[in-house]
Write a structure and sequence with these properties.
By secondary structure, the chain is an alpha/beta fold. The protein is 37% helix and 11% strand. The chain starts with 5 loop residues before the first helix and ends in a 13-residue tail after the last helix.
């Protein structure tokens, strides 16, 4: 079925926000600045055993993913608007007012208040490179609208609420994974396992983008809310040795660029086989607190057929306990959801709560996504009975209890039921 192709695309996009009690934050790791501007927030400490991320993704806000609001995207960009690249090419300058209207409606301060009221403490914010680097340099049709004005507004809202942001660069020049979530779906390139992002020219563009992001942040009064930056979301390396080397070099560059700013690199594992083994030595060489490992677990999805045995599904979640316990750096589960082929509401609630507890033993998690729209004639979107399982706003309506904010995220997630044993008490 066509909708089975979509989740490969979704993993895309993001930036994160976190509500934090300042008194519970530990001293920063050695060599990292304590970012505290006037009226700013203390630096988010990814190595803390006291504070964990409990967040959601603002997917679909700054980088358009058709499956999240298919009817709207077809209406605005045409039937062939499979991704933001094509929609931008179709509309040209006419796309800017459409984007601005979208920014104002897709995420509002009322949404922010809802999430804060539910005890959410991290917003992962997916965004493309184009607000930070001119597309005249890259030769791509993406349109830059009021992206940065809206991002600055969300950062200000976050600071007012004691929340933090994880900035997630979801779309890179040339596409880092050939998926819709990067802004451009390269079907032919994917078949040939060619990823244009690894070209020397696009690597140069991407490094410039990182510097531009940091320069922009330096000018923001709410800079202190930025807990980390994912400089490339879900890159694919396949079995190409050159791609493997270039990705590590880009992570090396990113770590060096971010460290003087006191911002951690949140690095995705690139879908390599046995990722916790593959990245173990690399993570072990990094200064504690500067490198966070990003995993996007979907233990009930992306398989053919999708598993329906509930015991096995829970065990799939429990397996992450063993993987994180031997890893030398904090692990953030940057994307997870309630998606499962088992069509039972009570089960969905149990499934999500089990994930929250297990992922909370490491650095925490951010749910994908904060909201979703349904499609009247789904092509890339999922059927309604599956689509809603990606919407935190839907799940907060009874299936995920609001966090008692008199409790820390650690205490709250520990109180959730689980068959995965006890807290492994990780330390890095």
């Amino acid at each position: 079925m066509i909708y089975h192709l979509v989740p490969w695309v979704l993993a895309a996009v993001a930036v994160a926000v976190t509500i934090v009690d300042a008194e519970q934050i530990r001293r920063p790791a050695s060599g990292m600045k304590t970012l505290r501007r006037k009226d700013g927030l203390p630096r988010w400490d990814w190595t803390s055993s006291d504070k964990k991320a409990y967040g959601t993704n603002l997917g679909g806000l700054f980088l358009l993913e058709r499956w999240m609001y298919e009817d709207w995207m077809v209406q605005q960009g045409g039937d062939d608007a499979w991704d933001e690249y094509t929609m931008s090419k179709n509309l040209g300058g006419k796309m800017k007012p459409i984007l601005n209207d979208h920014f104002e409606s897709w995420f509002t301060e009322d949404h922010m208040n809802q999430l804060q009221g539910a005890g959410i403490n991290m917003l992962r914010i997916p965004i493309g490179y184009w607000p930070f680097l001119s597309t005249e340099e890259t030769g791509e049709p993406y349109q830059n609208a009021s992206h940065l004005e809206k991002l600055s507004q969300i950062m200000n809202w976050s600071q007012d609420r004691g929340m933090y942001v994880l900035l997630d660069i979801h779309g890179l020049p040339g596409s880092q994974n050939n998926d819709q979530s990067s802004g451009r779906n390269y079907t032919s390139n994917n078949d040939q396992q060619i990823v244009d992002w690894y070209s020397d020219e696009n690597q140069k563009h991407s490094r410039k983008m990182v510097h531009n992001i940091l320069n922009w942040l330096d000018a923001q009064p709410s800079k202190s809310v930025v807990a980390g930056i994912t400089t490339v979301n879900e890159p694919k390396v396949f079995d190409n040795g050159d791609y493997h080397n270039k990705l590590r070099e880009f992570y090396d560059f990113s770590l060096k660029a971010l460290k003087p700013h006191g911002i951690a690199l949140v690095a995705h594992h690139a879908f390599v086989a046995d990722p916790y083994d593959y990245w173990h030595d690399y993570a072990d060489r990094q200064e504690r607190g500067t490198f966070v490992f990003d995993d996007h677990p979907y233990p009930a999805w992306f398989q053919n057929p999708e598993p329906t045995n509930r015991k096995d599904l829970i065990q799939n979640i429990c397996n992450f306990r063993d993987q994180m316990s031997g890893f030398p750096a904090p692990v953030l589960y940057g994307e997870f959801s309630g998606i499962t082929a088992v069509d039972d509401n009570d089960w969905v609630g149990h499934y999500v709560k089990t994930q929250l507890k297990v992922y909370g033993w490491s650095a925490g998690s951010t749910f994908l996504n904060f909201r979703m729209n349904f499609a009247s004639n789904p092509v890339l979107a999922l059927p309604d009975h599956l689509q809603w399982k990606y919407s935190m706003l839907n799940l907060l309506d009874g299936l995920i209890p609001s966090r008692d904010q008199s409790k820390s995220v650690v205490d709250w997630t520990d109180s959730l039921s689980s068959r995965c044993g006890g807290n492994p008490q990780l330390s890095w």
